[in-house]
Amino acid sequence: MGKYLERAKELRASNERHYNCTQAVVMPFSELLGIDEETAFRLGSNFGSGMRTGSVCGAITGGLMVLGMLGKDKPSDASGFIRRIRDNHEGMTMCADLLRVNAQRGGNKKEHCDGMVYESVEILEELLGLS
User: Is the pLDDT at 88 greater than 80, yes or no?
Assistant: First the structure.
């Protein structure tokens, strides 16, 4: 397990403060991004729960933020990251759709969201050559 994934797991397990999906993806990379964790926390605050509207999953949004801040801003960088997530989730990227299907299958919301965060961080570690 890479250090970024390890940090994401610590954040999602915290009982002291809630870290939404975007925050839990961006914060582990904060030092690499040249920002402190509190700034990363604030940056991601309105992107959890699909931008608070069920739109694009916060774990995906966080991954795109990390890629962009590291200069991986070509359309192919973003589409490759999104494609990897989409391929693992029946083509879905919208938070509301992902949660609906998870619930229909009897899944637990927290476990599902944790899994989305961990998947995004693992993909980032791989794409960035950090694993």
Answer: yes
Number of H helices, E strands in the chain: 9, 0
Show the domain range for 73.
3-127
Q: Domain total for the chain? A: 1
Contact 125, 4 (CB under 8 A): yes
Question: Which pLDDT value is given to residue 131?
Answer: 72
Average pLDDT over residues 38-42: 98
94: three-class secondary structure by DSSP:
strand
Give the predicted TM-score (pTM) of the model. 0.96
Burial class (CB in 10 A: 0-12, 13-18, 19+), 97: middle
Give the residue among 1, 47, 2 at the shortest CA–CA distance from 24: 47
